[in-house]
Amino acid sequence: MNYQAVIGLEVHVQLKTDTKIFCGCSTRFGASPNSQTCPVCLGMPGALPVLNRKVVEFAIRAGLATNCRIAPRSVFARKNYFYPDLPKGYQISQFELPICQNGHLDIEVDGGVKRIGITRIHMEEDAGKLVHSDVPGLGSGSGVDLNRACTPLLEIVSEPDLRSADEAVAYLRKLHQIVVYLGISDGNMEEGSFRCDANVSVMPVGSTTFGTRTETKNVNSFRFVKQAIEYEIERQIELLGEGGKVVQETRLFDPNSGETRSMRGKEEAHDYRYFPDPDLVPLVISNDWVADVALSLPELPEARRSRYRSELGLSDYDAEVLTATREMAEYFEACIALGAPAKGAANWVMGEVTRALNEAGKGIAECPVAPARLTALLQLIEKGTISGKIAKTVFDEMWTSGKAPEAIVEEKGLVQVSDTGEIERIIDGIMAANMGQVEEFRGGKEKVFGFFVGQVMRASRGKANPAVVNELLLKKLKG
Questions:
Q1: Residues 377, 403: contact at Cβ < 8 Å?
Q2: 113: Cβ–Cβ under 8 A, 6 or more apart, which residues?
Q3: Mean pLDDT (whole number) for 130-138
Q4: How far apart are CA 223 and CA 208, in angstroms?
Q5: 204 by DSSP, 3-state: which?
Q6: Cα 295–301–304 angle (5° rounding)?
Q7: Per-position b or e across 198-220, b if 16+ CB within 10 A of its CB
Q8: What is the pLDDT of residue 82?
Q9: d(CA 182, CA 328)
Q10: Alpha helices per DSSP H over 39-108
Q11: pTM for the model
Q12: How far apart are CA 157 and CA 20, in angstroms?
């Protein structure tokens, strides 16, 4: 029997606020264990939560960017379960009345576009984490670090509209790009700022009845998500093919083996005994607040790509690369605003700028060549003051010295030679020294032309204007 996968994703996005969702403790990553805690996030009796307004604003941003309806009234609930890193014995989340509902994202699949529904986005607090280690002389042990407890999260729940691991990864990549563009999360997957629970089931092709699903928890890389989903699809199909049954359960992905393994039976909503949190009043959001947040949203990648193609005449590839991060897009647009030609700026940002950043291990926000300096360099090329080849030398000097391109060109005598008389003298000398190659060209071996261009550029130390060189050289070689 042929089977079809059915996949839904629950994505946890850690928000980039300075303080936690219900208290004033710092959210800084990497601090000493339990150094960023207080009675509220430690779950002390009598300590009352106070909602962080910035978390609500970030949730509204995420909802608007994913085409959700923003609920005018939403409610926080207590999700009851026991775990060593959950001091209160419950997690404050949202259940029946989340802040955002009924959204969607469009992803590109097999040359077309597919719409993936978003069921809901809700706010919640994160739990702490267990730290397992070996203590010299005492053996292995576990500790609890509650710095992460009460850190603000958004849980973004998709509809079960995904049908392959590749579709799941495409959806995740787009969602990741959006939350980073919005400035609501750093999206650092290694630190757990963007992690995914994958719900996977299979059903016979042509069926409309979903099979029993499993949930693979806390997968924190696109590659691992793809591997986990593919393994789980294959495991379930093989199990059904042997006459077995898929058990609804929570599973963990082992990146070393590329396999999932059973963790515990899958809980249902009633197992958590949700009820409204009595310490937090219902959240009421005015239309004016939603409108203000909407006005503050940046232009998102999809809209930017469309504009780059229609207004700037860039290719799909160029638009895709330049909008990969908000910082790169803003650097590129700063160059355009200063008068740089669109295609020239695109080529240099994607080429020399990206190369130098990669070699230095820096992001574009740390680029020592400001947009104004790169624009000035491109304008020197446009004016014919320097060639594109010399410009790369000038750029490297700009990168290390921080000097303006005009100053470097003047100091090093790099002005391009466009004087036809001087270029003709160079060409005449090279032709006289290479009469054999001249005869080869005149005999029809036109590939020799490249040899002469190289010789002229070498003799001029790269300063000769390539357009003038080509024109004069062709005229003289043809006699």
A1: no
A2: 106, 107
A3: 72
A4: 29
A5: strand
A6: 80
A7: bbbbbbeeeeeeebebbbbbebb
A8: 87
A9: 14
A10: 53-65
A11: 0.85
A12: 22
